[in-house]
Design goal:
With about 400 residues, this protein is mainly beta. The protein is built from six helices and 28 strands. The radius of gyration is 22 Å and the shape is globular.
């Protein structure tokens, strides 16, 4: 490919431990096939000190360290290293970009080393599947019957197939969310299903289903009929509360096209609970996305023009405080122009302090750092658009070694 440097295959041969088997990473190396000069510490450092040093490396560098010698290989692949040091590693979230409209293939971006890696995602069979992530785990749900559901760690390649969620098998819309407990490593998965009441376009059946990894059971937490609103495919869990976007079915003007429902996962079902949990969005939005950034609910959305709400004039970022939205950033015009022509669809995803934004029509990736209030482009993705209708999308996840489904 024009402009592409050489690829280096970093393979952890026969690396097997309690956390499973690591697949290889393909790294785009800006310096070509130059061999790195390493100074051996084999005879100088005790194991515990060497573990601490390796644990402070970016996760991709940890993989390379395991290839240095047998001793380093054994340290990185040991369960002691994974459980004692991995939870405390300071890793920035990665972004996986799908580069095909038909196959689940693509590259993952590491914002620390500013490099792209070719990695394979287990089990997912199409890039349009519903995707949610939390603390190193990613959930995939098929977009047809919404009956196939997998949880995996994209780094270790460990995966698990879950039982089919209860409720309607063929819902019109489904929203997937996952939340991992960082202490117990257990997780909850929620699926919000939405189906039109037969013969009534304004009424929609909404049901919330919760999976608990510790009991290995699904429960149906709530079923309710909403009038004038339907569910969609956007949801997230923050601090035990499930948030999901709802969409107007025709009543009200353009300014009332979207709303937010906040549902406490420890609540018991009661009639009218969803309507009482309604939170209006800050302005007319298109392509709204919800994300959990350090326990705070953050929403990214396109701000439509006054006369053409389907044409984006800018992209904003809001944080929910109680039931009030606070705008914390708006994409500067120079970055907005950098995407080229925007329609009403774009992808955004984030966790920790980073938010990733990309247009569906191009592989350009923009990053917003919440802590520094800074916008910057990623390194160029090693793929080019081959035909006009080629679409690009993706999702954000934390690269972690200790998370297992």
């Amino acid at each position: 490919m024009e402009g592409e440097s050489s690829w280096i295959n970093h393979c952890l041969d026969d690396l097997k431990s309690d956390i499973g088997e690591f697949d290889f990473f393909l790294e785009l190396n800006d310096d070509g096939n130059q061999e790195a000069n390493a100074v051996s510490l084999e005879l100088m450092l005790p194991d515990d000190l060497l573990e601490r040093i390796i644990a402070r490396l970016p996760i991709a560098s940890i993989f390379r360290a395991s290839c240095v010698c047998k001793r380093w290989h054994e340290i990185v692949s040991s369960s002691r290293f994974v459980w004692n040091f991995s939870p405390f590693l300071s890793q920035k979230p990665w972004y996986f970009m799908f580069t095909s409209s038909d196959e689940p293939i693509g590259y993952a971006y590491d914002p620390i080393l500013r490099k792209w890696y070719g990695i394979d995602l287990p089990q997912i069979r199409a890039p349009d599947w519903c995707i949610a992530s939390s603390c190193g785990l990613v959930g995939f749900m098929d977009n047809d019957s919404r009956s196939e559901l997998y949880v995996c760690n994209p780094i270790t390649k460990l995966w698990k197939k879950l039982e089919e969620p209860p409720g309607l098998k063929f819902s019109d819309y489904s929203a997937l969310a996952i939340s991992v407990n960082r202490i117990s490593h257990g997780y909850n998965i929620t699926v919000v299903k939405s189906k039109q009441v037969p013969g009534n376009f304004f009424e929609w059946d909404i049901s919330i289903h919760i999976y608990d990894s510790e009991t290995i059971l699904w429960t149906t937490s709530l079923t309710e009929v909403l009038a004038g609103w339907r569910g969609g495919d956007e949801s997230v869990i923050c601090d035990g509360v499930l948030y999901f976007l709802i969409y107007s079915t025709g009543s009200g003007g353009l300014e009332n096209r979207h709303g937010l429902i906040a549902y406490n996962l420890s609540s018991h079902s009661s009639h009218g609970l969803l309507r009482r949990s309604f939170i209006p969005v800050p302005c007319p939005l298109t392509c709204g996305r919800l994300m959990n950034l350090k326990g705070k609910l953050v929403m990214v959305g396109g701000i439509g023009k006054q006369d053409r709400a389907d044409i984006i004039k800018g992209i904003g970022i809001w944080v929910l405080n109680g039931k009030e939205w606070q705008e914390i950033a708006r994409m500067p015009h120079k970055f907005f122009q950098g995407f080229g022509e925007f329609d009403d669809v774009f992808a955004s995803s984030g966790t920790d302090d980073l938010i990733y934004i990309q247009s569906y029509g191009a592989p350009a990736l923009l990053i917003f750092d919440m802590s520094q209030k800074q916008w910057k482009w990623s390194q160029k993705c090693p793929v080019t658009k081959r035909f006009p209708l080629q679409l690009f999308t993706g999702f954000c996840f934390e690269p972690r070694l200790e998370s297992a489904p």
